[in-house]
Amino acid sequence: MKLPRRRFLHLAAGAAALPAVSRFANAQSYPSRPVRIIAPTAPGGAPDILARLIGPWLSGRLGQQFVIENRPGGGSNIGTEAVVKSPPGGYTLLLATTTNTINATLYDRLNFDFLRDIAPVAGIIRLPLVMVVNPSVPAKTVPEFIAYAKANARKLSMASAGTGTGTHIAGELFKMMAGVDMVHVPYRGEALALPDLISGQVQVLFGVMPASLGYIRAGKLRALAVTSATRQEVLPDVPTVGEFLPGFEARGWYGVVVPKAAPVEIVGKLNQEINAALADPKMKKRLTELGVAVFAGSPADFGKFIADETEKWGKVIRAANINAE
């Protein structure tokens, strides 16, 4: 049976439009079931805290539960790999961190390539670290701490959230620039390091602001400095490390990524909702209280940032000759 030319062209145009219509409908109906947000660290750490802030917002906006699932271990690689290898339908998200860009150089062999295998969705926050010590440490300033560490070489223990994490790399940069030698004690997440720091089993930590702030305010930890280029509003009397070691700066970041093949329409929808959360006055106030800065932007902006961070941290790791344990 022959179709009139006009009828044929009409049908052909309709067929060509079907994929776009399907993608649009897919994005409109998303999510149709609960979504997992994988935090690749132990409960109580900064990624977990942040995931539990952004998850309820997304649940309220999109009408489905965004369930937080902690997958610690392997320097965040276990949780990251779980997301990378999950179905790319937008139902498994990763709360990505600075550690992911560090690991690209730190580990010689991974079962994934972070830059190649993820699709960036949105940045959420950037934050300084804070150099905190147990109150039993006699130093009350960075210069005093440096002098104390030099007088007690290899006798002070520097905790971190794990080998190659941002808390570790910041500490190693401090050791290099200050010329001090401390024993690195890696933990499986910052939440596990903090109790030992509070009890005095380790002496110093370059910790993320949200996880340490409550202990600083309660007097259980002493803040010597923040690692950002400028002082922080939430700790206005605490100087920067750079005031004593010019050029020192280390900031963490957190954002959301999904498996590479996730539909662009769903990526766009998630980006829109996360940016809406970051623009909400109540959310902004809560984040400010935690000592962090909003880090909004497009998926393309976030992707470029991730690539730049991977290159920057790669140079630091190679210069410091840091290897995964």
How would you explain this protein's 3D organization?
This protein is α/β, with parallel strands linked by helices and about 325 residues long. Helices cover about 45% and strands about 20% of the residues. The protein has helices at about 5-30, 45-60, 75-85, 100-105, 115, 140-150, 165-180, 190-200, 210-215, 265-280, 280-290, 300-320, and strands at about 35-40, 65-70, 90-95, 120-135, 155-160, 185, 205-210, 220-225, 250-260, 295. Strands 1, 2, 3, 4, 5, 6, 7, 8, 9 and 10 form a 10-stranded mixed β-sheet that branches. The radius of gyration is 22 Å and the shape is globular.
Structure, briefly:
With 325 residues, the chain is α/β, with parallel strands linked by helices. The chain has helices spanning 5-29, 46-62, 77-84, 98-106, 114-117, 142-151, 166-178, 190-199, 209-217, 264-279, 281-289, 299-320, and strands at residues 35-39, 66-70, 92-97, 118-133, 157-160, 183-186, 204-208, 222-226, 251-259, 293-294.
Instruction: Specify the biggest β-sheet.
Output: 10 strands, mixed
Integer average pLDDT: 90
C-alpha Rg, in Å? Answer: 22 Å
User: Quick one: how many beta strands?
Assistant: 10
Flag low-confidence runs: 20-24
Distance between the termini: 70 Å
Using brief descriptors, characterize the structure shown.
325 residues; alpha/beta
SSE topology:
Blueprint (H helix, E strand, L loop, with lengths): L4 H25 L5 E5 L6 H17 L3 E5 L6 H8 L7 E6 H9 L7 H4 E16 L8 H10 L5 E4 L5 H13 L4 E4 L3 H10 L4 E5 H9 L4 E5 L24 E9 L4 H16 L1 H9 L3 E2 L4 H22 L5
Parallel strand pairs: 1-2, 1-3, 5-6, 5-7
Antiparallel strand pairs: 3-9, 4-7, 4-8, 4-9, 4-10
